[in-house]
Amino acid sequence: MPVVHVIDVKSGNLQSLANAIISLGFEVKFITHGSDPILETCERLILPGVGNFGHFVKELHSRNFVEPLKKFIQSGRPIMGICVGLQTLFESSEESEGTVGLSIIPGKLSKFNPSKKSVPQIGWNSVTLTNGNDEELYGISPFSKYYFVHSYAAIRSNDEINKLKEIGWNLALCTYLDETFIAAVSKDNIFATQFHPEKSGKAGLKVIKSFLNDIKSSPINNELKLNSIKNNIEKTETGLTRRIVACLDVRTNDLGDLVVTKGDQYDVREKDDDGNNNVRNLGKPVEMAEKYYLQGADEVTFLNITSFRNSPIKDLPMLEVLRLSAKTCFVPLTVGGGIRDVTDPDGTKHSALEVASMYFNAGADKVSIGSDAVRAAEDYYLNNNKGSGNSPIETISKSYGVQAVVISIDPKRFYIEDPNKCKFKTIKTNFKGPSGEEYCYYKVTSQGGRMVHELGAVELAIACENLGAGEILLNCIDKDGSNSGFDFELINMVKSNVSIPVIASSGAGNPQHFVDVFQNTKTDAALGAGMFHRGEYKVSDVKNFMTKNGLLVRVDNI
Ligand code: 1PR
Questions:
Q1: pLDDT at residue number 497
Q2: Known catalytic membership, residue 453
Q3: Residue 178 · residue 116 · CB < 8 Å
């Protein structure tokens, strides 16, 4: 099997990239230090990076990679940068002033302007090719979608783009609302992508395959081109597609098997007339995740819903689920439940950062924090709107980047007559309360809805954004498992108070509900669980229906 060498500075999920390369028939070997003699002879190199620019460059320096990398590039052997790997080719980044990149490409990276759009950019966007869109660039097609997750980018004006082209850089560009940035770049033996090809489904695998097989350009797939223009599809403001997330609530059932389950308002036990009170068993997590990937899910989320139970850290049941799913699902994977400081039954302590690192190493791209986010937000307000620096949101986002930290909110609706009497953000509701109340607000809960806190959903979201969360998974206990559609009022209220992306969750019962949530709110993504698990609809049914209604979705044809 041909070998591909990958630089590993221990700063993120490289397992998914390795899995993608292996799935293409190659073997992967990691290089962890610049003194490794293999750098002198290896045929090609991949330089992947996630998280903070300064941290990544510092790691390259401390592992003596900088000079060997420059030498490698000068030798003319093929190298491919991914995400921060692309960013490192530039001179510097606003993210880490004073840090000098490899300076192969002139210029600096800057942060997206968050005034009109969610930052980070998380989701599937399309690219244009500056060579005229006739030839794919390393398999990159203007008619496919690629997965981006970043706050900083090489944002460039037309003049700047032309200057780079004049000095020989071949560029693929992406526009995120009002800012155009470099999505991919190539010149001679250098190729790099800002998006994650290993997380971009079949379209992304094609890009990696093209690099590994030295296919720098190839004719555009005309079928894709025709498909992309034949429908009367919206052009979204941001350029991003409407993201569909499949969510698997996972727990051990009464027989000790790890199963996908689904509750009604978080109660996951059957209530049969014959007294059956078993945990609802809807299937096996790894198989179901792969099924949803193949059906076109843009993302798969696993929630360990019995995370409050203490088990030795080496025994975390979800780790194996992540490891196996990352081998077959080439889209982002999120894991939640139990991301907090833990103590093993034998008294050994582990930080939340340690727990999260285990999941990232197993193949997770993001971790989702529920109960501990509530605790951190309560502390934040007690501490005059300041973080302690030690909460899991802060420690994990500092090491892995804000895009790796999702907070999962489990809100419950409460009605009130007079909004002035409520210390939390309220809304005038279209669905009056039991005594005709015209206003409502949402209190947050923890421990899977068991504990209700004196904290509003909006207040939780704002605190967590300030602490360093990069995305919000917005559940709704009242709607969970109801098949009655999403709670637009809650979604609009939270979304309008934060600038990070929001995933709407709870209540999806049919494809129309997904159309409705995107048409009635500004949500960035929508999540479904029960309707997929019960086999009533496939993810592709939802996407086909959305397409019929003119909404832009990712279809993974290559
Ligand atoms: O508190 O950090 O350990 O995280 C625990 C995680 O587990 C949280 O994300 C919490 O939402 C989740 N959780 C805990 N208990 C339950 C339960 O159901 N008993 N599941 C639970 C929450 C919510 C959704 C669900 C949607 C969509 N599941 O993500 O998938 O409501 O369902 P639907 O489309 O069928 O309506 P921590």
A1: 96
A2: no
A3: yes
Could you tell me if the CB of 530 is within 6 A of ligand 1?
Answer: yes
**Would you state the structure tokens that stand for residue 338, as one six-digit string?**
């139990």
Q: Give the residue among 507, 464, 463 at the shortest CA–CA distance from 489.
A: 507
| Per annotation, catalytic residue among 5, 55, 150, 196 | 196
Name the active-site residue from 59, 249, 394, 459: 249
DSSP SS3 for 53: helix
Q: Which of 113-127, 309-323, 508-522 has the lowest mean pLDDT?
A: 309-323
Domain with CATH 3.40.50.880 in the chain: 3-229
Tokens 């923890």 sit at which residue? Answer: 446
Say yes or no: CB of residue 263 within 6 Å of ligand 1.
yes
Would you call 544 exposed, middle or buried from its count of C-beta atoms within 10 A (0-12, 13-18, 19+)? middle
Q: How far is CA 35 from the centre of its chain?
A: 34
Give 515-539 pLDDT, tens digit per residue.
999 999 999 999 999 999 999 999 9
Q: Determine if residue 557 is left, alpha or beta; phi over 0 gives left, psi from -120 to 50 gives alpha, anything else beta.
A: beta
Q: Catalytic annotation on 274?
A: no
pLDDT at 274: 77
Is the ipTM above a cut-off of 0.90? yes
Predicted local confidence at residue 309, as pLDDT:
66
Q: Is the distance from the beta carbon of residue 198 to the nearest atom of ligand 1 less than 6 Å?
A: no
- Structure confidence by residue, pLDDT tens digits, 212-257: 999 999 998 888 787 777 668 899 999 999 999 999 999 988 888 8
528 and 554 Cβ atoms separated by less than 8 Å: no
- The domain 243-409+458-548 is classified under which CATH number: 3.30.1330.10, 3.30.470.20, 3.20.20.70, 3.10.105.10? 3.20.20.70
C-alpha separations of 422 from 293, 358, 446, 508 in Å? 43, 41, 21, 30
CATH level 2 (architecture), domain 3-229: 3-Layer(aba) Sandwich (3.40)
Residue 229 sits at φ, ψ, to 5 deg, of: -105, -10
Domain with CATH 3.20.20.70 in the chain: 243-409+458-548
Q: Cα–chain-centroid distance for residue 371?
A: 20
Reading the block at residue 295, the tokens are 């059906």
pLDDT greater than 90 at residue 153: yes
Task: Kindly calculate the radius of gyration of the chain based on its CA atoms and give it in whole angstroms.
Answer: 23
User: Is 533 a catalytic site residue?
Assistant: no
